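In the previous chapter we treated chains in isolation. Here, by contrast, the input contains two separate entities that must be folded as one system, with a combined length of 954 residues.
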Amino acid sequence: MFKEFAKGLSITLKHLLPGNSTTVDYPKVKLEMAPRFRGLHRLVPTQTREKCVACYLCPTVCPAKCITVESAENEQGEKYPKVYEIDLLRCIFCGYCVEACPVEAIEMSDAYELANYKREDFYFNKERLLK
Amino acid sequence: MVNLTIDGKEVTVSKTATIYEAAKEAGVHIPVLCYAKKLLPYGACRVCLVEVEQMKGRLIPSCTTPATEGMVVTTMSDEIRKVRKTVLEFLLVNHVVDCPVCDKGGECDLQDLSYDYEVVTNRFQGEKFDLPKDEVNPLIERNMNRCVLCGKCVRVCDEVVGYGSYSFINRGFETKIATAFDRGLNCEFCGQCVSMCPVGAILPRPFKFKARPWQLKEVNSVCGYCGNGCTVTLGTKDNEVQTIRFNDETGVNDGNLCIRGRFGASYVNSDQRLTSPLIRKDGELVEASWEEALEKVTEGLRSAGSDTGIITGARLTNEELFMLKNLAKAVGTGNLDHSGGESYKGVTEGLQETLGLQASTATFPQVENANAILAIRTDFYETHPVFGMVVNQAVKRNGAQLTVIGDKQGKLTRMPHARTLQHKPGLEVNILNAMCRFLLDEGLAKTEGLQGVEELKTALAAYSVDAVAAATGVDAAAIQKTATELATVENAAILLAYGLPYTAHSRELGLAAANLALLTGIAGRSGSGLYLCGEKSNSQGAIDLQILPAAGALGVTGMLKSAGEGKLKALYVTGEDMLVSYPDKGLIEKAIDKTPFVVVQDLFLSETASKADVVLPAASFAEKAGTFTNAERRIQRLNPGITSPGQAKTDFAIFQDLLTALGATASTSEAAAFAELAAVTPGYEMVSLDMVGDQGYVWGGETLAPEVRNLVTVEGGKALDSKFQLVVGSALYHSGTTSLHAKGPMSVVSEPYIEFGREDAAELKVLDGELVKLKAAGGEISAKAKVDRRLPKGVLFAPYHFGSLNLNRIYSGQAAIAVEVSK
């Protein structure tokens, strides 16, 4: 029994040695996110407009009902989202919107520092999402 | 009947059924793209292929193959699946697959099938279509890149609408649907093609990019425009009626609609709707609270008492009309009337005197099987377009002989082998009389059981076919032939529409048509019918509920005259813009000016409302529950799809409040009101709301037998002796004055016009779009000219819907107005 105890403690002690720590000194040091991390949404722009064609699949699939889209016709006669808004307070970061998008117009970035002081600041409109 | 087995299920169907229809009966689903219930089998898409035991070796298209005795059908197997998938792959070779931006996405048959059959890759490759879109017209957008060439639009436009806008052009891969000379669409914009298209090739432009199908809430209701009573399914979202959805499961219209029904509902969302009661203070109408407005109205009506006149439009529900009648009783007045008071006399007096009825004798679907049809006035298609489509099917599918008595040409006269008895304006009765006389002379008349045969014979002495032919300008042989047909065929129908622009000879036309219906045996015979169709959605209901002057009391004309002399103390007008739509504007202006207290209850601040002392904001058809009775006596239910804007209330709620304020008892709900009105309305006694299902309920049964059979002598009209005569009527794109607030109809016909025939236009050197003036006894009107080939020489036409035309300055109910044309 003592043998097992010593073995366990040795692992613990090993981690205490310099260079073996997994704790990061946040916010001075920031971790690199995994490529499939689901952080803040981003609307993908093209040269002239947003890539989004306002097909309404993301608000339809969204389980938290946090996406508001209103489509309209632009000067070229194309369908575009007049309004595209995500309510981050409701969002559960499931990534279904990304999965549903037929034109890869929405993606999830690695931004996770989403704290804010005002409720209004959690509503991300089209301009903020395009940044 | 034939028996067959489909997927192991035994099913018995009629001899005319196809395998597809038999499968549907058996509850077996077969996918289709080109099949539609109301169209003839076509077999274009090849998605419905099935296996038939007796026809081994190849797959059989189920939608075109008749079911035969002992057939054993398999609707799904590995091979069928493979073949259907291949068909879909072929369809998708050129298809642009722009589902994300296509408004059909979510209810697209091609999309659904591709999903069902897991068409994720395509083994075939070809060039994608890159055809120009037709976005010229404001209502129907055509994007032929999405077309699957099912031909449904071509067929519905030809078979049902009878317009024939579309056709296939080119061959092979280049085949596409196009209009004449491949130009932009320019038709009657009924949108039947929109409702038929299984993909997103033809879409309603007003609904472009508005919403996805799954976001819409569907509410079944009844169109609020004409007396045809088409059921419409409102697609609502964000408390707005976004679009009208296709639905051929309910009602009598088979999913068919006209421009008004399909594109005309947008007036309910108009930002010009009244949202608050208005009271006149210091000569200005200002917003007020309901309490204040109701108090004022109650006080005004109470002090006016029996000197109150109540005039209503025929677009209120039965329940609301019932409440209005109670309101008249509570106020103590018998001066109650609707729709101009004259236009419906053909039904209330004409049919009453001859048949003892006040309604059409048969239902619309029966007309499809008629062998001979007589339409009095070509405008019948303009006032009741969807019934006109039934006539078209009778003519085209069943070879019915259509005869039109009209002072102009029109859609009906252009139907295949239609016979037009084109007469000088105002002489319809003369021709009907001549037909009666001819039937009596030739012994073709079915005089058995008829009263007044001898009297009629003597009275018709002056209406010999030749004399009438000479006077009216109609071919004598055509009159004889029409009369003979009507009397000898198995099923025949006589159609006549009434409404505000057709006040002339209303009673006389009703009598003459009923005489003819009696002599030919049409009245009361199963399969045949005499149809007198009201212009508004509840015209028949208003007559059923007797929204008519009480004995000794005043009708509309009486009320207006009396009011003009300052004898009425209050006028209560609901759902009617009298100053625009009633004949004789001068009289109405005087009546409104001289009446100390005028209340108008309407959706908009109409011309009449702007002159009122109190204006009450009411609700549209899309906001209320209740029932309408259409022109074939079908009682149908309305369901509210949206809520009223601002403080606007349903007419029902307003009447409830007024009745309570006047100390009378008011029905507590629409359903309670229906039960109460059914108890006291002849024909409705046995009807309960539960019986009013998806197909409505026809009171009196499919064929209404006449109570009496009296022939009544009726004087014919006299032709006007004037070089140019103006006839007034309804335009196809509009109905009453409400449609002027709807974007759809307004985008096609946005301003008043005066229509000229080509000959007259050439003679007067009038060009299309040029401003012309018409001078007549009552004044002068001016509008842009429209040159068409509908009108004979010397006859001009003007639609009555537009207030800006001031047509009723010169129109006071005449059949034709003598005018002088100047530029």
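Residues 33-130 of chain A form a domain with the Alpha-Beta Plaits fold (CATH 3.30.70.3270). The mean pLDDT of chain A is 93. Compare these points with the single-chain example from earlier in the chapter.
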